[in-house]
């Protein structure tokens, strides 16, 4: 895989912040683009043209639907390649999930069956996608609210697919904690089980505590338990680029920058030989 050329902690680009970002060029290392928002005929491509002139960018998608029974959508990939050629993203990612069938699209990332048959199926589809794209893609562990049938742990499933397909992992630490609470497993065991050599990017975000479940709303500051796990992961892979997600109840840009600064403070602390692995924020 090419050098990602992404450093530090970036944020997701949102049109609500477009004027401020494009006019003031704030000190943000890089931006992630929700690429499915720019595949329609009337998408504001000129805005991303300007953004890409000043910042490195990554593509993050929800339309690959790698877990669907449908074959690889080469029409979708062709459009993705068209935008890739236009904006030269440093990383391209999607999710270990499915979002549509031939006749229906869901507004949710739906879970995949965690068994050997599906592991081989997804590995083959990811290989086909990477062959068409001409580069490695990253796949993200998704947050889920229902459990699909499983004969192995999710981290084992992901490790095997990364090994078989050569894809990279976008490790979403917030999603691990959301799923750990919702499905009753230990987030630390998940992180210890993941092969961190596959991780090429990290996501952090804030969830909503709805009492009997966590909702992956991307509408809150990052939770302390997520910061703690983030510090633990960075202690092992400190140079991995990180993305702060905040999609709903979007605050002023300076609020996001403050969260970015927290992430970079942790990165600096964990690279200090005298700093314990677990850092309180």
Can you characterise this structure?
The strands form 3 sheets. The protein has an 8-stranded parallel barrel, surrounded by 4 helices. The two termini are 34 Å apart. Strand 2 (31-34), helix 2 (45-54) and strand 3 form a beta-alpha-beta unit. The protein contains 9 helices and 12 strands. It has helices spanning 18-24, 45-54, 74-87, 116-133, 154-165, 173-183, 187-193, 224-236, 253-270; strands at residues 9-12, 31-34, 57-60, 92-95, 98-100, 105-110, 138-140, 168-172, 199-204, 208-209, 214-215, 242-244. It has a single domain, classed as TIM Barrel. Mean pLDDT is 93; it is low at 277-281. It has 281 residues and is an alpha/beta fold.
List the helices and strands and how they pair.
Blueprint: E1 9-12, H1 18-24, E2 31-34, H2 45-54, E3 57-60, H3 74-87, E4 92-95, E5 98-100, E6 105-110, H4 116-133, E7 138-140, H5 154-165, E8 168-172, H6 173-183, H7 187-193, E9 199-204, E10 208-209, E11 214-215, H8 224-236, E12 242-244, H9 253-270
Parallel strand pairs: 1-2, 1-12, 2-3, 3-4, 4-7, 7-8, 8-9, 9-12
Antiparallel strand pairs: 5-6, 10-11
Helix pairs in contact: 4-5, 8-9
